């Protein structure tokens, strides 16, 4: 059991880092799963990989607690913008989630989207090198701009490997949103999205856990929470002085690795 707990901790670390950095948690998880397979049922593993995101979400809630509590008109309006941005992925995802998983949840799609979004990050950052952002605060974000960012989130929901944070940040940059606002809005968007996804997985799995399963899930949640706090603070500090191009190059390299590894494995 000790070895399974170590595996859960490693998965929690990977989730905590990759959920917030625009580098695709899915791309990393499929690689990690190749080398670190927990001795659990496929149903529990499917649920585990989604529900440990709750730990990552709680990190956002803790860090941004004062900004998230709707005690004034500006915060209520911000939540309305978040709801608007979540609508595309919520509606399409609920209707076609199983279809999208059947069609696109494979290493080829993950690798292609890793590379494609990485290239787009580099192109967009080069184009915006001397541009002055039009939106420097979430308060200045219009409902139309929120909806556009939500459509980019939908793309990530359809094509694994895109990265939810990567897609929404990229969408924000393309319409003139500053890096800081794009990142923060991405964090806030994740709250209803991940809570909803986790709840659906828990309901589907049922709430009947063995003691070992409970221990694995709790460890994964705690580690994802702690690592997420570090990852979020790192990203917000990093983008004050740097752009996202380094993440673009990282994605390209990871995409090539995923494509090469699974391509060779399939061939052999």
Automatic annotation (TrEMBL):
The chain crosses the membrane at residues 47-65, 77-96, 102-124, 145-162, 182-203, 215-236, 248-264. One of its GO terms (biological process) is regulation of cell shape. It is an enzyme of class 3 (hydrolase). The keyword Hydrolase applies. GO terms for molecular function: undecaprenyl-diphosphatase activity. Pfam families: BacA. It is a multi-pass membrane protein. It catalyses: di-trans,octa-cis-undecaprenyl diphosphate + H2O = di-trans,octa-cis-undecaprenyl phosphate + phosphate + H(+). The keyword Coiled coil does not apply. GO terms for cellular component: plasma membrane. Its main location: membrane. Keywords: Antibiotic resistance, Cell membrane, Cell shape, Cell wall biogenesis/degradation, Hydrolase, Membrane, Peptidoglycan synthesis, Transmembrane, Transmembrane helix. It is found in: Cell membrane. InterPro entries: UppP. Its EC number is 3.6.1.27. It comes from the Bacteria. Belongs to the UppP family. Catalyzes the dephosphorylation of undecaprenyl diphosphate (UPP). Confers resistance to bacitracin. PANTHER family: UNDECAPRENYL-DIPHOSPHATASE. Bacitracin is thought to be involved in the inhibition of peptidoglycan synthesis by sequestering undecaprenyl diphosphate, thereby reducing the pool of lipid carrier available. This is Undecaprenyl-diphosphatase. It comes from Zhenpiania hominis. The lineage of its organism: Bacteria, Bacillati, Bacillota, Clostridia, Peptostreptococcales. The gene is uppP.
């Amino acid at each position: 059991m000790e070895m399974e707990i170590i595996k859960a901790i490693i998965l929690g670390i990977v989730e905590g880092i990759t959920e917030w950095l625009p580098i695709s948690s899915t791309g990393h998880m499929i690689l990690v799963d190749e080398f670190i397979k927990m001795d659990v049922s496929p149903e529990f593993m499917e649920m585990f990989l989604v529900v440990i995101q709750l730990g990552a979400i709680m990190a956002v809630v803790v860090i941004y607690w004062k900004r998230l509590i709707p005690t004034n008109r500006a915060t209520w309006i911000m939540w309305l913008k978040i709801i608007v941005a979540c609508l595309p992925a919520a509606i399409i995802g609920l209707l076609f989630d199983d279809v999208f998983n059947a069609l696109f949840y494979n290493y080829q799609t993950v690798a292609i989207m890793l590379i494609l979004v990485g290239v787009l990050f580099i192109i967009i950052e080069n184009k915006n090198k001397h541009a002055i952002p039009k939106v420097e605060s979430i308060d200045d974000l219009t409902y139309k701009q929120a909806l556009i960012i939500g459509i980019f989130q939908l793309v990530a929901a359809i094509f694994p490997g895109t990265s939810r944070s990567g897609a929404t940040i990229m969408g924000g940059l393309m319409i003139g949103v500053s890096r800081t606002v794009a990142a923060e809005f991405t964090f806030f968007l994740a709250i209803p999205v991940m809570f909803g996804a986790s709840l659906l997985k828990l309901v589907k799995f049922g709430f009947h856990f063995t003691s070992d399963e409970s221990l694995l899930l709790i460890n994964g949640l705690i580690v994802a929470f702690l690592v997420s706090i570090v990852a979020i603070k790192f990203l917000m500090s990093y983008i004050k002085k740097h752009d996202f191009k380094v993440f673009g190059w990282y994605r390209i390299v990871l995409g090539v690795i995923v494509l090469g590894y699974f391509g060779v494995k399939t061939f052999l």
